[in-house]
Amino acid sequence: TPDRIQLQVDFLINNKKYGFVGSDVKNITADGIVGPAIGFPSDNDYIRCILLFKNTFCASAVMFRREAIIDEKFDPDFPVAEDYDVYLRILEKGWMCTNINTVLTYYRIHGQNITLTKKQLLDQKDMQLLKRQLESLHLKYTEKELHYYFLLGKIDISEFYAEYLTYGFLDVNKMLSKLIFANLIAKKLNNTTLVNFLFKYWNDSFSQLTHYEIGLYNAVKKSPFYRELDLLRKIKFWVKCHINFSNKKI
């Protein structure tokens, strides 16, 4: 848009801790049809949590601060994900990031976009970046756990979402809790924000429970996500576990 450069330059001038800034976008079809606005998160801590699993910037909408990008080059070992890789490297140096929640870029969908034509390679590179970030948390994981973490960045795709739903609650609780406890030690992300971010995945699985027992209650009560439940749900959960209740949902 005509005001994009000015708005992003002004933001970077007035916010010295930010290494780069993106914006909301609108897609344009090959026939020129403009779609609705696509919003991206603006809170730095929340973005950092999302970036653990997937890219949350439109590369065409990003402006970098020269000081942040000058020593960082696109890595040829990360074709199709070089933007995601460089965002992570800049943030590792302590810079912050955001998206301006105004549409400043129009992105044309034409059938030859890399995200469409090189999907398998993109998934491979996303997995590499996921492993790198998990290792920075000093997290030890099994292949099953790694695959689940990978799925968290892909659940907006139907084939991956169906697989995501196959994981049982106790496994989900364990895997998500491991991330929280690892981050408490590594201090890489804002832990309150990380709990809030991961809670939606935890709650998705928790809401599908059909059988309740004391062992389940004891496991859930120790979970870092338990405190996110409102009081009424905690009471209902306690009652069902203490009478070994079975039904469809809480």
What are the main properties of this structure?
elongated, four-stranded mixed β-sheet, alpha+beta, 250 residues, 12 helices
Description of the molecule:
The protein has 250 residues and is α+β, with helices and mostly antiparallel strands. Helices cover 51% and strands 12% of the residues. The chain is built from 12 helices and 4 strands. Strands 1, 2, 3 and 4 form a 4-stranded mixed beta sheet that branches. Strand 1 and strand 2 (34-38) form a beta hairpin. Helix 9 runs antiparallel to helix 10 (191-206) and helix 11 runs antiparallel to helix 12 (231-242). The relative contact order is 0.11.
- Order of secondary-structure elements: HEEHEHHEHHHHHHHH
Overall structural class, as computed from helix and strand content, comes to alpha+beta
Strand content: 5-15%
The overall strand count is 4
Query: What's the main sheet like?
Result: 4 strands, mixed
DSSP helix fraction: 40-55%
| Alpha carbon gap, first and last residue | 47 Å
Give the overall average pLDDT. Answer: 93
Radius of gyration: 20 Å
- Give unreliable regions as ranges: none
How many helices? 12
The rough form would be described as elongated
